[in-house]
Design a protein that fits this description.
Layout: H1 2-20, H2 24-27, H3 38-58, H4 71-78, H5 85-104, E1 114-116, E2 120-122, H6 123-142
Antiparallel strand pairs: 1-2
Length: 150
Amino acid sequence: MQQISSELAALIHQYSDRLYGLKEEDVSIKPSPAKWSKKEILGHLIDSAQSNIRRFIVSQYEEQPFIKYNQDAWVAITGYQEHEFKSIVDLWKLMNLHIVRILSNLTPEMGQRTVKTNEVRTVEWLAIDYIKHLKHHVHQVLELEPVPYP
């Protein structure tokens, strides 16, 4: 779990300054009414962080908790489109630093505990998948080379 938390910490450091450098008018553009703006994409990553924090913690004291969320509803209800982008980046950074702390405290045995989302997955698998998901979307926001994500 230490390697995973270290990788996430490095990604936060790598991406945060670039995110702070984006212009409000650019990140607020919605490609279409049904598509998320870059603000909403980063907001989605905040929602994902919240759900995964819950998974990483609850799985340590409950047997196979069932934790999933409706990503479109979360983005719409939170209203990220109306938030200042800097505050979205601040929250994204803090949530992910919190995940780094949580993961760095997990033993390898605790990483093998399971959570049910759509499927039953280990905490370790969820943490690795979380990083892939984060990279996929941050690359979209920063317009970097696409990172495939199922």
